[in-house]
Amino acid sequence: MRVIDLYSDTKTTPTDAMRAAMARAEVGDEQADEDPTTRALCDRVSAELGYPSAVFMPSGTMCNLVATLVHTRPGDELIADAESHICTTEAAGAAAIAGAAVNPIRTADGVFTADECRAAIRAPGRTAPRSAMVCIEQTTNFSGGAIWPLDTLRQVRDVALDAGLRTHIDGARLFNASCTTGIAPRTYTEGWDSAWIDFTKGLGCPVGAVLCGSESFVRDAWVWKYRLGGAMRQSGVLAAAALHALDHHVERLADDHANARLLVERLEAEPYFSFSAVKPATNLILFSLRGLSVDADQFVRHATQAGVRIRALPNGKLRATTHLGVTTDDIACAAAILIATAWRYTA
């Protein structure tokens, strides 16, 4: 039985065309800056995000960790949303490796205000950690895929910079935000010290992210990349996949967003699914169960057995994610299976 996998957009696999591009890649030694395809990717992404330099990384998690290592010193504190990836899903790398504590801001949708950011910045003191960095996610992840409004994003940036903090954008799904709003990625990242995009989610690559910043930031990032074991040799094989995705998979993100809206439309017509105030603007759908005799974990197990895999979050909510590996027909089928699963467990 085929399972329609809506657990995450990381479940995408390379298309045949992407595999062909990888096979044709011109390669060299990345550590010696001799891989032409990797250089081309970094040049392209840095231009798209409006930075002078960039470095190819194995993962977005390494992008966040390396940015923290560059922007902070041990004993510092970074400010981020309480449900953000850097807070909840990176094995406490900021603390364990960078020695940075996290000061979480609790929000309804992953978007905090300039006033909330200002309140989180600590006054200097002998017994207080130094507030050193503000990190935001565009789009938010476990808070339901909300898009930071440009005005709010800029206000938070300005508060942080005025207080002497470094600023960082986790742009794992930045292109999803741009696809929805029509606002260019570089407009979102303007004035931020560092930002990155991921290629393994909606863009469908097997490996890779690109971290951008100033020339000096990227020099320091390269040192940490090497120390952490992230430096590669013939990385052009992976960079070729990312270049193919930039050419062929960005505009089609709109299809994923349409499929997310379709799934919500089908489930919302039933009394058993409750949606957060954050209606899906991109490809992430966050919802809860209502009036059923099973909890989120049990529902996920039963739905998977029936042919649809979604994700239960620690807070009891459910998340479904659309991506290039599922079609509109798959979404219609998934909705029917989720509804039928709910019917089985009405209280």
From TrEMBL:
Extract the InterPro entries matched here: ArAA_b-elim_lyase/Thr_aldolase, Low_specificity_L-TA-like, PyrdxlP-dep_Trfase, PyrdxlP-dep_Trfase_major, PyrdxlP-dep_Trfase_small
Which keywords belong to this entry? Answer: Lyase, Pyridoxal phosphate
Question: Could you confirm whether the keyword Lipoprotein appears in this record?
Answer: no
Q: Which GO terms describe its molecular function?
A: L-allo-threonine aldolase activity
GO cellular component annotations of the record? cytosol
Q: Which GO terms describe its biological process?
A: glycine biosynthetic process; L-threonine catabolic process
Modified positions (N6-(pyridoxal phosphate)lysine) in chain numbering: 201
Q: Where is the Aromatic amino acid beta-eliminating lyase/threonine aldolase domain?
A: 5-284
Q: Which cofactor does it need?
A: pyridoxal 5'-phosphate
Report the coiled-coil segments: none
Question: Which NCBIfam families does the record cross-reference, listed alphabetically?
Answer: GntG_guanitoxin (NF041359)
Extract the PANTHER family matched here. Answer: L-THREONINE ALDOLASE, L-THREONINE ALDOLASE-RELATED
Query: Subunit comment for this entry?
Result: Homotetramer.
Q: Its family? A: Belongs to the threonine aldolase family.
Indicate what this protein is called per its UniProt record.
Low specificity L-threonine aldolase
